[in-house]
Specification:
By secondary structure, this protein is of the alpha/beta class. The protein has 6 helices and 7 strands, in the order βαβαββαβββααα. α1 (17-27) links the parallel β1 (8-12) and β2.
């Protein structure tokens, strides 16, 4: 008998090229990751929940309900201790409520932490996966702190100012390969992959 070696296709509810390449690299060869573009989904998917779990589920449900495809979606929040957990669910639109501006987000964060000794922070990613109508959640957390200035040129978003635990470099200094081994998203995706592998036997 010839074993079927075709990769299982998974729809990832994003058109963010950075996220797509990051998750594809983490997942490796076992699964083929499809973006919203790949399934001809071009509408604005709502992200109006007050929690990371809620936002991730909204996106996954939108694809499942409208396209009938098993789908996973993520939402990530940067939670800064000295700011009472902000920006949290508003991480992507921290500087401007109506648009994503990573440079402005980072500048606002550094300004708000200016002069503060406590720079503890953590990144938290929640993945919602809908399979045959059933909902599954996977969480990844990495503790760290916020640098006093931007450092490094690799990565995206807050990577130039987030120093993960047990390192002295920001994600942007460590580079994509190392980040993909230790990041919050990597940890959440690893749990998703473990779940999928267990199902496949």
């Amino acid at each position: 008998m010839v074993k079927n070696t075709s990769r299982k296709k998974l729809v990832f509810a994003t058109n963010n090229a950075h996220k797509l390449s990051e998750i594809s690299a983490i997942v490796g060869d076992k699964f083929e990751i499809l973006s919203l573009h790949n399934i001809d989904c071009f509408g604005d998917i709502p992200e109006t929940a007050e929690t990371l779990e809620g936002n991730a589920l909204q996106k996954a449900e939108y694809v499942y309900n409208n396209y009938g495809l098993d789908c996973f979606a993520d939402d990530t929040g940067l939670e800064v201790e000295a700011l009472g957990g902000r920006p949290g669910v508003h991480t992507a639109r921290y500087a401007f409520i109506d648009r994503y501006d990573p440079e402005a987000n980072t500048e606002k964060l550094l300004e708000e932490l200016d002069g503060k000794e406590n720079r503890k922070a953590r990144f938290r990613t929640v993945i919602a996966y809908i399979q045959g109508g059933e909902k599954h959640f996977f969480e990844g957390i990495v503790e760290g702190e916020i640098a006093t200035e931007k450092r490094g040129t690799k990565g995206f978003g807050y990577d130039p100012v987030f120093i993960p635990e047990d390192t002295e470099q920001t994600f942007a200094e460590l580079g994509v390969e190392i980040k993909n081994q230790i990041s919050h998203r990597a940890r959440a995706v690893a749990k998703l992959c473990e779940f999928l592998n267990e199902q496949e036997g």
